[in-house]
Structures are given as structure tokens and as C-alpha cells.
Amino acid sequence: MKPILVFALLFPLMALSQERLLTVSSKDSLNGRPVLQSSLGANIKLNGFYDAFGGLQGNETFNVGIIDVFGTDDNPSFHMDLYQTQLKFEATYFEKKSGQRVYAIVESDFWGGNGSMRLRKAYVETRHWQIGQNWNNFGDELLWPNIMEWEGPPSGVWIRTPHIKYSNTFKNENWIYELSLEAPITNYVSFEEFGLNVEEVNQVTPDLTVAFKKAFPWGHLRLSSIARNIRYEYEDDLDDIFGYGFSFSGLYVTSKRNMLQFQIVGGKGITAYMTSLAGLGYDGYLNVNGDFVSTPAAGGWASYEYYLTRKLHSNFVVGFTRYNFNDVQEFELRIEDEEEIVIQGDFINSHFYGIVNLMYDPFPRMTIGLELDYGWKDISFNGFVDNSFESGDKRRDAMRISFGFMFYI
Questions:
Q1: DSSP for 103-167?
Q2: Cα-atom radius of gyration of the chain, to the nearest Å?
Q3: Do the domain assignments include residue 265?
Q4: CB count, 10 Å around CB of 45?
Q5: Does residue 305 fall inside a structural domain?
Q6: SS3 labels along 34-92
């Protein structure tokens, strides 16, 4: 099986091996291909879910990172929308003299809040360069478990950022390297439990990523890294912390389209890139020495898709995330519905996630699916409360039945 066929098998729901129904090609050609070809299409998706119990009632995605472990509301809820529908415009141009391919895309969905449109991708790509907004190079854009819910495993790296990326091969074309400058992300000020007087400031350096990939007939293995300089203001003084991370990922596709995917990620100051932690402000905290330091975090996930028949397939996904605040100078923690100040303490947070689903493709461009989502969030702490040492832990889970309908045109 050639690598290009593996790529086509990665997204069976979107049927990437098929052209869009609305495609326009120029009359002139080069080597049997139209010089210019453009298409307009849509991935229509009905997203529905029933929350059986737990701390995610009504949340649009199954993000175990935001489970309220101190909450008590277990009332069921039902929701259905089409905000995950995507609109995509693509164009491919072949320069006549060199034959070089230029590809451009603009893709949006309606997940910007209350059905408003949001930009997903907008970039131009040549043989070696990609300029615009796309999946961040620290992640692996060819990975995505075939699931109904749209958050993904808690440690997945699927953030999209503006970037300038260069890619090339070594003497062996199956060995690929990628370098990118990514737009910096500010994510350290929203964790209110710390009560920090930390203010967001303008960043002055892009995030740097380096990745190496080995392509095989059955898929690929990929190692990526990121380095970040995170600037902040604390008590009217400007300073910065260093963040870094590593990710190892891969996929294996059989001739029957069965597919194994995995990703392992770890580092410091990288929670902004991890699915269940992004936007929560956990990249840094103040320790007992009065230093603002980057937060250690790690996680991993794996998925397996199995085709029972040509049209019927099932997916199994598991994942976890863990991040630690060690020797925190001060944070507030609600214990038994009361707020207490914990001084010089440790705070450890873990997320666990599991999914099983069944999908049916009645037609080549259509998929119907039913899914069971289950996960839990666990926190543990220890520290001094009013000069008395205390420790404890708290856990809460959530279960959801997701369903969906997808049509690709």
C-alpha cells in the first residue's frame, strides 16, 4: 500500500478520496492535469448528545478537563445542533514553467458561539512552504480518532494557529522534517483559584517547533518538539518563563482499513496546546519561592478502528492527562462547599477518557453514528490550612450518549 493511499484512508467520514461535487477546472492543462482547479464544498454534521449524569451537562463537547468535581447536579440533559458543519473552498494551481503545485484553502465552521461563523483554516502551500493558519506543527495533523464528539482525547494536540512552516526530506524521501514559527499563545491568567496578580502582556517571540517523520507503506511515526518563551507581568515587573514539550505519535493502517493511532505528549508550559486544558490558564503558577514557573503536564491517547463489514465500523478510544502544581505558594480550594486557603501545597489534576462507537456508511458520502462517552476528573491536594497540614482528593465522572449524521458534498 502506497503512502498516498494511507492518507486517503485516514478520513473515511469526509471521503477525501472523492472530489467535491462543485468543482471547476480550467481548460488549459499541464501533464494531463488542469492548470487551475477549484472547489466549494460542505461537511454537514448533525451533532446530538444525551448526558446521562455527571459534570458536563449541556457542554457542547465531552471535555473531561472542565468537569466540576465539587458539583452535585446529575440531572440528564439533551442537546442537538449543526454548528460543527464546515464550509471549505479549495484551489490547486500548477505553474506552467516549473510544474510546481500551489494549494490554497479557506475553511470555516459555525462553532464561534451561538452558531456564529469561525475560521478554521486559511493557508497557501507550496512544495516546501505552508503560510497561514492550520493545525499547529507540534501536533500531528494526520491523526484524529473517528468519533462523534468533537473534543477528542484530553491530551490530544489539535490547536490551529497562524504559522510559517517549512518542510523537506532528507536523501530518503520517506524521512521528512518540518520547522515552523507559530503564533504565540497567552494562557496563564484565568486560573482564579491561585488569586495571582499576574497580567497578560504582549508576546514578543513566536513558538518554535521541530518535527521528524518516517513514512512507511502502512502509515508513519512522528516525533515533534516545541520551545516557548512566555512573557507576563507580575507585581508591575515584566518577566518570562520557558516552556517546552515533546510529542511522539503514529498510525498504522491495514489493507482492510482497520487503523491504530496513538500520541504521547509531555513537557512544561504546554497546557495551552492540550485539548482538555487549552484556555484554562494552567501554563504557569507561583511557587513557594515567589517564582512564576511553568506547569509540568503529560498525557497520551490511543484509538483503534475496526471494520466489521465494508459499511459498518467501530472505534475504541482511551486517553489520559495529568498536570501538577508543585509547592504552590497559595491557592484556594473548595472543600465540602467551603473555600479554604491552602498555603505551600501541591495540587495534582488527572483526566481519564474512554469512547466506543458504532458507525454505518449507507452511501459513500454519508455516515451515521452512535457513541458512548465516559470519563472522569480526579484532583488530589496536600498543604497547610491555618498551620494545619491537610490532604485529600475528589473525583467526579460523566457519561454521555452521542449521536451524529454526516454528509460530505
A1: EEEEEEES-SSTT--EEEEEEEE-SSEEEEEEE-TTS-TT-----SSSS--TT----EEEEEEEE
A2: 23
A3: yes
A4: 21
A5: yes
A6: ECEEEEEEEEEEEEEEEEEEECCCCCCCCCHHHCCCCCCCCCCEEEEECCCCEEEEEEE
Q: How many domains does the chain have?
A: 1
Locus of grid cell 501538577: 324
How is residue 172 written as a grid cell? Answer: 530518503
Partners of residue 250 on adjacent β-strands:
221, 262
Is residue 227, in this structure, part of any structural domain at all?
A: yes
Q: Which three cell numbers stand for residue 292?
A: 512564576
User: Of the candidates 112, 49, 53, 119, which has an alpha carbon nearest to the alpha carbon of residue 81?
Assistant: 49
Instruction: Answer whether residue 297 is part of any domain.
Output: yes
pLDDT tens-digit profile, the chain (409 residues): 344 334 334 433 333 446 787 889 888 888 878 889 999 999 999 999 999 998 898 788 999 999 988 888 889 999 999 999 999 999 999 987 788 899 999 999 999 988 999 999 999 999 999 999 999 999 999 999 999 998 999 999 999 999 999 999 998 999 999 999 999 987 776 666 665 667 778 889 999 999 999 999 999 999 999 999 999 888 888 889 999 999 999 999 999 999 999 999 999 999 999 998 887 888 888 888 888 899 999 999 999 999 999 999 999 999 999 999 999 888 777 666 666 777 788 989 999 999 999 999 999 899 999 999 999 999 998 988 888 898 889 999 999 999 999 999 9
**Per the structure block, which three cell numbers stand in for 25?**
477546472
Residue owning grid cell 505528549 = 265
Selection from 16, 275, 320 nearest residue 152 by Cα: 275
Q: Which residues contact 291 (CB under 8 A, 6 or more apart)?
A: none
Integer Cα distance of 123 and 160 in angstroms: 11
User: Are residues 313 and 303 in contact, defined by beta-carbon separation less than 8 angstroms?
Assistant: no
- Name the residue type at position 66: I
- Full residue range of the structural domain in which residue 165 is found: 50-78+113-402
Residues contacting residue 286 through CB under 8 Å, at least 6 positions apart: 194, 196, 198, 234, 292, 293, 328, 329, 330
What is the dihedral sign for C-alpha 125, 126, 128, 129?
negative
Cell output for 303: 484509538
CA–CA dist 335, 374 (Å, integer): 25
